Amino acid sequence: MRRNLKKELVRSDGRRSYWLLKTEPAEWSWDDQLRSDGGVSRWDGVRNRQAQKNLKSMKCGDLCFFYHSGRERRVIGVVEVVRTWYSTTDDRGDDWEGAVDVRTVAEMRRAVDLRDIRAEAEVMKDFALIRQPRLSVVPVPERVWDRICEMGGGFGGEDDEGEDKKEVLSG
């Protein structure tokens, strides 16, 4: 029996959803993100229609794991959506591409490798990173978010109880 995973994408308090954004470190790394203007960068170049649909579903305040793909294959940090989907124009003038803007929240205390994520088979069984490994933008169910944060020792934007610090997430 398939569960309705859409319900799991919104926290129980209804405030935000969680996502994972993949990037090749040679193209855009965590260090590049940290050096970006005020920690804010445009997340663009997503061509896959399903991944674009996921970008279009993002809301301001949603949190995203920043994931290095390629050889590293690990969750490095957390970013926050600060501008929802907007259209961009490609070289031909077609208006089918778009982007969201994300702001650096914090680095994971310990990077979480893909092999460790896969080892958590029961919790991760419905996680799109495992089921659809080629998608560059995937939703993260709350229970998966919580487990990956636990595996990584949390991130710098959390207090001791694991709750997001208000000053880190406010504009």
Automatic annotation (TrEMBL):
<dbReference type="InterPro" id="IPR047197">
    <property type="entry name" value="THYN1-like_EVE"/>
</dbReference>
<feature type="domain" description="EVE">
    <location>
        <begin position="17"/>
        <end position="151"/>
    </location>
</feature>
<dbReference type="InterPro" id="IPR015947">
    <property type="entry name" value="PUA-like_sf"/>
</dbReference>
<keyword id="KW-0539">Nucleus</keyword>
<protein>
    <recommendedName>
        <fullName>EVE domain-containing protein</fullName>
    </recommendedName>
</protein>
<dbReference type="InterPro" id="IPR052181">
    <property type="entry name" value="5hmC_binding"/>
</dbReference>
<dbReference type="GO" id="GO:0005634">
    <property type="term" value="C:nucleus"/>
</dbReference>
<dbReference type="InterPro" id="IPR002740">
    <property type="entry name" value="EVE_domain"/>
</dbReference>
<dbReference type="Pfam" id="PF01878">
    <property type="entry name" value="EVE"/>
</dbReference>
